[in-house]
Design goal:
2 strands, 3 helices, 128 residues, 72% helix
Amino acid sequence: MRKIFPFVFFLFLAVPLVAGAQQGGLVPCGPGTGKPVCELCDLFQLIANLVRFILVVLVPPVATLFFIFGGVTFYTAMGDADKIAKGKKILTSVVVGIVIIYTAHYLVSMILGALGVVDVQWPDIIIC
């Protein structure tokens, strides 16, 4: 039960985000978008919209939750060396993960922008 609770809790947090994303227009074509016919370019724009959704909507709250979890673990260690190490490891992993995610996005966007493939204006990537 203890292992499934965080997953269910995160699922309930993520459902409103996904529902809001559908209203924001992840899919650039189709009924109600003003562009009834989808092309190959729209597939790549959909992928870019999904990446933007992950970077802007999902990563910050998940990172915040893990920062809180790591801080609480560190704070409640009460001198236990294992718990202190666990809290430090969680906090370090969150920082390293955030740096990897945003650096990878920046490098790929910079390379594609330099090649003239896409127009990058953080956090939007405009392909079509």
